[in-house]
């Protein structure tokens, strides 16, 4: 975990990076197993919420009653996949889950995000 923390601390310091580093540092406050379990559960809860919201909002978009409704639901899905990507990145940085699985999920989240972005661009035309 110390190596991951050092790697993260070496990042540029724009506000997004600073916010990410802040989250990593909070998650790394203690090596106590109880604390690590709290961190794992918090990340898990947020990741599950954002990841499952992507599909739910795409499903709602499919049943949209108007084009603006469709565009809005796709936009929510786009925001939620972005949030899921952030939680996956944090989970990898703090080492709470197996890295190969996280890397696979990050690749899939990126791919899903690209498809949603394409749908969003097309729908706004």
Pairing-aware structural class of the strands and helices? mainly alpha
Beta fraction: under 5%
Task: Please identify which CATH superfamily we are dealing with.
Answer: 23S rRNA-intervening sequence
Query: Average pLDDT across residues?
Result: 92
Named at the architecture level, the CATH assignment is: Up-down Bundle
How would you describe what is shown here?
With 125 residues, the protein is an all-alpha fold. It has a single domain (32-123), classed as de novo design (two linked rop proteins), CATH 1.20.1440.60. The protein is built from five helices and no strands. The chain has helices spanning 2-9, 15-27, 33-62, 67-94, 99-123. The radius of gyration is 17 Å and the shape is elongated. The relative contact order is 0.13. The model has no long low-confidence stretch (mean pLDDT 92).
Question: Which secondary structure elements does this structure contain, and how are they paired or packed?
Answer:
Blueprint: H1 2-9, H2 15-27, H3 33-62, H4 67-94, H5 99-123
Helix pairs in contact: 3-4, 4-5
Summary?
This protein is mainly alpha-helical and 125 residues long. 83% of the residues lie in helices and 0% in strands. The chain has a single domain, classed as de novo design (two linked rop proteins).
């Amino acid at each position: 975990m110390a190596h991951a923390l050092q790697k993260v601390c070496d990042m540029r310091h724009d506000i997004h990076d600073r916010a990410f580093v802040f989250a990593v540092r909070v998650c790394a406050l203690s090596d106590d197993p109880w604390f690590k379990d709290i961190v794992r559960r918090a990340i898990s809860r947020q990741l599950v919420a954002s990841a499952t919201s992507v599909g739910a909002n795409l499903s709602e978009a499919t049943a949209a009653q108007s084009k603006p409704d469709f565009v809005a639901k796709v936009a929510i899905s786009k925001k939620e996949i972005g949030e899921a990507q952030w939680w996956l990145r944090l989970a990898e940085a703090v080492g709470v889950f197996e890295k190969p699985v996280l890397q696979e999920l990050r690749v899939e989240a990126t791919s899903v995000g690209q498809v949603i972005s394409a749908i969003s661009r097309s729908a706004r035309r």
